[in-house]
Every structure is written in C-alpha cells, then in structure tokens.
Amino acid sequence: MKTSQLMVISCFIISANCWLSPSGYSDTLKEKMHEWHAKCQRYSAVPEELIEEMKKGKFPEVESAKRYTSCLWTLDGPFDRDYKMNSLKMLKYVHDNHSEDGHDYVRCNREALASGAKSFELFWTMQKCIQKRVDESHYIFF
C-alpha cells in the first residue's frame, strides 16, 4: 500500500465497559470514525456482533474481523511504505490526554513487524498487542 494508514485504532465506544467513549477521541478521529467504520465493514463483511466483541478486547480468529481491523489501520494511517509506524503521525489520532499511549502503539507495531506477519495479519497482531498494553479506559476501537 502506498500510504499507510491507520484508523487509529479501532474505536472503542462503551464507557460503561471502560472503553473510551467517542467524546474522548481526538478531533481527527472523531471526523473519520464513522466513514472508516462504514467503508471497512462493507469491505470486510464483518458482522456488527464481531465488532462489538473486538471493542471488548476479544479477537476471534475470523478472517472478516482481521480484514476489518487491517482496513481501519490502512485507510489514513501513520505508516511508511514498509508499515513502520511514524509516532508523530500516530499522535494526531490519539487525544492529547492520552498521548502517553503513543509509545505502546509504536512498540506493538515494531513487535508485529518483527513477528514476520504480513498483510492483514500484521495489523491483527498489532491490534491485539495494543489492546493488551493500552489502559482499557483509553482503548479505541470502532
């Protein structure tokens, strides 16, 4: 892919479940999330029920879920041509109050690249890592 993209990461909606509500998203992410969700859901044909499971941190090994996650990350993300994350670009998707999480995103990207994962498996591996490392009250997935 020519320009890497990221949907920062997945949006995570339900504050009652400790996920960051959209009001806590960066302005950039708020502007894009609905469009990205619609495009990626059409592309991947992932059922809404699986997306809800991913918001809760469960990652079923289902191809459509992997494609959805990959799509979100590659629409307008902070990656170079080799999918290495640019931390400065990443920060435009992370709310200022949660900028300390940026290092976790970069670390998970490095680990996913080092694993040898390719294509949508790379973003799947990275997203699962992010979900484990980022404080659940900051976790974004849509």
TrEMBL record:
Q: Which InterPro entries match?
A: PBP/GOBP (IPR006170), PBP_GOBP_sf (IPR036728)
According to the UniProt entry, the coiled-coil residues are: none
Signal sequence residues: 1-18
Entry-linked SUPFAM superfamilies: Insect pheromone/odorant-binding proteins
Q: Which Pfam families match?
A: PBP_GOBP
Question: Per UniProt, which keywords does this protein have?
Answer: Signal
Q: GO molecular function of the protein, one example?
A: odorant binding
The protein in question is named Odorant-binding protein 34
The organism named in the record is Pyrrhalta maculicollis
